[in-house]
Amino acid sequence: MSDAKIKELETRIKILEHLVSTLTVQTTKKVKVKKAKDPDAPKRAPNAYNFFVREMKKLEPKTDMKELGRMWREDFLRRMTAPPGPRWPLKLRILTRKR
């Protein structure tokens, strides 16, 4: 083999070695670092379900979470299938009283 072919093969080998090394680096598993929680950070606002559970626990303290979830679902479905009523019932009562 000539010197030119040997040098060309050596450069191709170096390129292939570099590609293989980058492939092995990319396939390694990255470890996610969990951020430290700030103890002074504000808490999230409670959603409607949390308010519902709190109110139901006041009325019936021994009710389990499974039962509360069923009650929430039934209440939601009942409201979704109910015919639409006045949008602002309090304002409607005030307006009808003035007449």
Mean of residue pLDDT values: 80
Q: Indicate the low-confidence ranges by residue numbers.
A: none
**Chain oligomer state:** single chain
Main beta sheet:
none
Protein name: HMG box domain-containing protein
InterPro entries: HMG_box_dom_sf
Main attributes?
HMG_box_dom_sf; 4 helices; mainly alpha; HMG box domain-containing protein; 99 residues
Q: What this model shows, in words?
A:
With 99 residues, this protein is mainly alpha-helical. The protein has a domain at 47-84. The protein is 65% helix and 0% strand. It has four helices and no strands. It has helices at 3-27, 48-59, 65-81, 89-98. The chain starts with a helix and ends with a helix. The mean pLDDT is 80.
Summarize the structure.
By secondary structure, the protein is mostly helical.
Topology:
Elements: H1 3-27, H2 48-59, H3 65-81, H4 89-98
Protein name: HMG box domain-containing protein
InterPro entries: HMG_box_dom_sf
